[in-house]
Amino acid sequence: MMHSMDITVKVSGKGNTKQDALNRALYKIQKTVMKQYPNSMILRIEPKDVGIISARETRFTERFLLFFFKRIRSNFEVKLKITVSLSILDINDIPFTIQSYNKVGSLKELAEKIGG
Questions:
Q1: Element (H, E) at 22
Q2: Looking at the 3D structure of the chain, how many domains does it have?
């Protein structure tokens, strides 16, 4: 039923700061794992190791009305390779029991059941 395993996922993120780019990449771990295990309930995701595939800063100059208030802006992009320890519960292994009941179809049938 419950399984524990180590897997490696690749995620990426972009942002205006280094922290923002890393946060956006780390936020995608759960979504990536859920795509790999669609018939499972994820109980725990624990990062074990983080490897950097690439980290890039893009700088550009911004000006107001083409000449005034020159400033240099940056965007950051990271691609990470993260090894995580997973604890998952396979939903298909849960033995559900089937319980059936008859639904009353009309008010007349309901009145007859009540005795009216």
A1: helix 18-36
A2: 1
